[in-house]
Amino acid sequence: MSNGGSNQPRPTRNEQREAAREKARVLREEQKKRERRNKWLIQGGVILAVVAIAAIIGTLIFNSVKPAGPGPANMASDGILLTGVDGVITATETPALDAGEAPTPTVPDDSGTVANIVTYIDYLCPFCGQFETTNSDSIRTMVESGAATLEVHPIALLTNKSAGTQYSLRAANAAACVANTSPNSFFDYNELLFANQPEETSTGLDNSELKALAKEAGVSSLSTIEQCIDDTSFKKWVQDATTRALTEPVPNSDLEAIKGTPTVLVNGKQYEGSLTDPAEFQSFVLQATGETFSESTSTPSPTPTPTPAQ
C-alpha cells in the first residue's frame, strides 16, 4: 500500500548542484538573448531617429537651395509701375521674369508733362516710413490725376534688423505677392504697410498681420496671396532684386547703385530734401518736371546753309 510519497530517490547534493548550475546557465542565456534583443531595438531606434533627423535636415536644405522660381508678374523692372486715369490707379502689366533673367527697365514718359517718380524702399526702414507718411497723399493725387507715374521697388536691406523674423524680406515678398496677383491693389497695400510700420529691431508684423492688411487693401484672390505670403514664394526674387539695386546702375538715372533707402527719383533726378516737409518734395517734383519739359521742347539752333561759291 502506498504511503503517498514519491518512489523516486532524492537527488544527491552533486545532482542538486548540477541542476542549479544548469538552471543558472539557462537563465544567463536568456538574459543574454534579452540584452541582444534590447540592444538591437535600441540601435534600430537610434538608426530610425537618425534617418528621420537626416530627412528633416535634407528637406530644410532642399527648401533653402531649391531652384529659384520666376519673379512676380507686373514687376519686370524689379518694380511695379502705377499710372492713373480719371482718378483710378492701375498697374502696368508685365510678364513674370524667369529665374536668372535680367529685369527690363521701364521706359519713362519723356513728354515733359509727367513726373516719373521712382522709389526704392524697405518696409522696415524708418526714413522710408517718414517719406511715405509725409508724401503718400500728394503722390496719390498726382498719380490719380495723371500728372505723375509711380514706380515702386521693394527691397530688403534690413532683413537682419527684426529679431530674427526677417520682416524686411517677408514684407517685400508680401508686396510682390500682391503685385503678382492683384496689382491694382498695390498702391493701397504699400500705403498700409507703412501706416502699420513696426519699429526697427522689433519682430515686425507676423504673416497673419501681413495677410490681414492684404484683405484690408481689398485684394482679389485673397487666398492665393495668403498662400504666397506663407510660402515666401518670392523670397529669392527679393534677394536678387536687392542685390541688383545695391550693385548695378539705376536705370534712367546717373546713379551707379542704390546706397540706402529711401532712394527717390523724379525724372531721373534724386530727391535729397526733407523727409517730413511735403511742400519741399512737391516743389522738387515741379522743378524736375519743368526741367524735363524745357529739355523736351527746346529747339536746336538751325544749321547755317553754306553760301554757294560765286
Automatic annotation (TrEMBL):
One Gene Ontology MF term: oxidoreductase activity
Biased composition (Pro residues): 301-310
Basic and acidic residues composition bias: residue spans: 12-33
Polar residues bias (residue ranges): 1-11
Residue ranges of the TM segments: 40-62
Lineage top rank: taxon: Bacteria
Keywords: Disulfide bond, Membrane, Oxidoreductase, Redox-active center, Signal, Transmembrane, Transmembrane helix
InterPro entries, per database record: Thioredoxin-like_fold, Thioredoxin-like_sf
SUPFAM superfamilies named among the record's database cross-references: Thioredoxin-like
Domain (Thioredoxin-like fold): residue spans on this chain: 116-284
Region feature Disordered, mapped onto this chain: 1-34, 288-310
Entry keyword annotation includes Metal-binding: no
Short name of any one Pfam family annotated for the protein: Thioredoxin_4
The family this protein is said to belong to: Belongs to the thioredoxin family. DsbA subfamily.
Protein known as: Thioredoxin-like fold domain-containing protein
Originating species: Agromyces fucosus
